[in-house]
Amino acid sequence: MAEKSPFSNLHHIGIVVKDIDQAVKHYESIGMGPFKPFAAIAANVVEQSSYGDMHADFDFKIRMLEVGATRIELLQPVKGRTINSDFLA
Fold first, then answer.
1. Euclidean distance between CA atoms 81 and 78, whole angstroms
2. What residue ranges of the chain have pLDDT lower than 70?
3. What is the pTM of this model?
4. Mean pLDDT, the chain, integer
5. What is the domain extent for residue 84?
6. Residue 8, SS3?
7. 20 close to 26: Cβ distance less than 8 angstroms
């Protein structure tokens, strides 16, 4: 019996970008796409936290691409301090 791949239940891969429009253009230019807009994080999370602050105020621009059962998620931090914005800095 073949072993199950650790990636067989992979839900999504997140890629943090500085400019989401440029990133979408790049990935679509190499044949990936279309990327669809995704609702802002703030609209989908009841309580937001960042670095232990349970009342953190942050937001992202997000675009998603479905590849089979897996999604590729492009994230551009646009407001607030998060591990994603610190990574880009």
1. 9
2. 1-2, 39-56
3. 0.74
4. 82
5. 12-88
6. coil
7. no
